[in-house]
Structure formats: C-alpha cells, structure tokens
Write a structure and sequence with these properties.
Layout lengths: L1 H20 L2 E3 L16 E3 L5 E3 L7 E6 L6 H12 L1 H6 L2 E7 L3 H11 L4 E4 L4 H5 L4 E4 L2 E4 L2 E5 L5 E6 L6 H12 L1
Parallel strand pairs: 4-5, 5-6
Antiparallel strand pairs: 1-7, 2-3, 4-9, 7-8, 9-10
C-alpha cells in the first residue's frame, strides 16, 4: 500500500509540474466580441509611434489580428504570410492591423528587421485586447494575447472571428472569407 501511495503522489506531483509549465489562459474581463456586433472603436500607436484608429479604415475590410509576441516563430510566420498577401488585401479593399502587448519600440525593431509594411499596434496595457475579449496567456509574470483574428466589414461590423490554430494558412483563410462576403 505504501508503494502505491508513493506512485500516486509522484504522479500527482508530475501533473502539477506540467500544469505550472503550460501556459495559463484566462478570459479577459469581457467575453469575445460577438459576430454581428459593431466593432469596438480604438486608437493605438503603430510601429512609427503614430496613432491608428479603427475609424481611419471606415469603408474598408479590416483584418484585426491579435498575436502573442514580436519576433517569435509562430508570430513571425503569421506576420510574413500577411505581408506576402498585402497586394491581395489591397485588391480586396482590406487592411491588416496586428495587435500585441508589445511596445512601439519592439514593433519598430521587428518591422524594420522583417520589412513589414502593414501596421503593428502596441497595446501593452491590453486596452484593445480587453475590449475585444481576447484571452490572455500568462507565463510567470508575463502576459501575452491569444492568437485571435476579427474580420470587420466596411460598415464596421464584426463578421467573423477566428481562434487561430492553423497559422500557415490563416492569411489565405481570411482572404477566402473576404471574397465570399462580397
């Protein structure tokens, strides 16, 4: 019986260690912004330090994508695919806006290094992340936005939301969705 108790205790201890290493995800104060609702208005600084507002893009499709961290593998792949497709977005009367909890300086460094021409918006106080109800992931004292995308119509309504799992094909999925809604 003592041996079984040690095995169970060891198993439980192992599970708690795994749980501590895995990123914790917590829902923001509000639920995810619902499809069909007016997109919450916002203004955030871009990588050049200039303010960007959702209202600046009235009459265009807006791809508002939230991502965890500048210059990380998955986020770089996603951003490079959005950059690769910039001509297609322009042809579809659409703009791409990336949002993370990183700073303007972090965005400026990354955009210069990787030649991103679309706007990356800094939300270190997670005001817009919270407005859209994007869950936060935490690792120790650091927080990161979950990878979520909102497609906003030219009239300012949220028409689609993705909890992104397929980073490689995400930009193509967004373009296909825009084309299907025209």
């Amino acid at each position: 019986m003592l041996r079984t108790g040690k095995i169970v205790a060891g198993f439980a201890m192992g599970l708690s260690c795994i749980a501590m290493l895995a990123p914790a995800t917590a829902r923001a104060a509000r639920d995810i912004a619902p499809v069909g609702a007016a997109a919450p208005a916002f203004t955030l600084p871009a990588q050049d330090g200039k303010p960007v507002s959702l209202a600046d893009y009235k009459g265009k499709w807006v791809v508002l994508y939230f991502y965890p961290k500048d210059q990380t593998a998955g986020c770089s792949l996603e951003a490079h695919n959005f950059q690769r497709d910039q001509d297609k977005y322009k042809a579809a009367n659409a703009v791409v806006l990336g949002v993370s909890l990183d700073t303007v300086e972090s965005h400026a460094t990354w955009c210069t290094k990787d030649s991103f021409s679309f706007k990356m918006l800094a939300d270190p106080e997670h005001k817009v992340v919270d407005q859209y109800g994007v869950p936060l992931m935490t690792r120790g004292p650091a927080s990161y936005a979950q990878r979520d995308t909102f497609l906003i119509s030219p009239s300012g309504k949220i028409v689609k939301e993705w909890e992104v799992k397929d980073i490689q094909n995400h930009s193509e999925d967004v373009l296909t969705t825009i084309a299907s809604m025209k």
